Amino acid sequence: MRLATFNLENLDEPKSGGGPDLATRVRTLRPQLTRLDADLLCLQEVNAQDVPGGGRVFSALDALLDDTPYADYRRAATTNDKGTKPRDIQNLVILSRWPILHSRQYCHDLVPEPRYRPVTARPAEKAALPVHWDRPILHATIDLGSGRRLELINLHLRAPLPAVIAGQKQAPFVWNSVGGWAEGTFLAAVKRAGQALETRLLIEQLFDNDADAWIAVCGDFNADGREVPLKTIRGEVEETGNPALADRVLTPLELSLPADRRFTVRHYGERLMLDHIMVSRGLLAQFRGAEIHNELLTDELVAFMTGRQDAESYHAPVLARFELD
To answer: Which is deepest, 33, 164, 188, 218, by most CB within 10 Å?
Structure first.
């Protein structure tokens, strides 16, 4: 079994305002998908396209997958809050060679919206406001045959970019005060940590149903190393202090690689490991190796500062290989 995750970086039809067209992006991204040769593929940042009558379809994704084996894979994807159609931007998609028995998205299903009253908002807020996650979590149960199932979770946690504070911004990246910027950064951290908590609570439910469950959590965590989201989802014994919970720990598979290979993003010269595949102990027993396809990775911040719009993604795909019993 080959399991991969890849943030496609706003896969969409071309928009007004420049940038590479879809055909150029397809020519750049498709070889990366071909190289992965994945049986299960978790994708992030898949935009949906509007069609007459108010519907939405994944025409850009269909164009990317055309003439590849993935075109015939089973598919699960996130939807809007009503569940009537795909979200307009940044959908999560799971592609599977095997049958998908069940899929569901989670967004405040296990963790209610926190409420918070901004202190730097202008004009001042009189009451606490709900803090809503930016994106749902996508869970699918995969039938691997012979009675074995894989519980696959695809996620895209909130980026550390500051959340909006009313009256505190002059432009998308220009703030009126350091205090406003700091409060926006705080709210972004709350959202990211909240998504991670909801993911861990879903994992807890899966373990409650089957203590030996094969669980894989894949996606763009927007967090590296020892940051809170990784620690929350991983659940190490060193954090809980309880050896009886050791069977519920997840393992980041990039730890099997040399330290100098563990990066999926270049950010102004710094190498960051933001995209992960984490698995339960039962699935770890079948693990045989990992790859991070970061050889051609370009620097996302340098591209932004120079106004360059590249056809490739600024995230590297991550692949894990398993030998199934």
So the answer is: 218
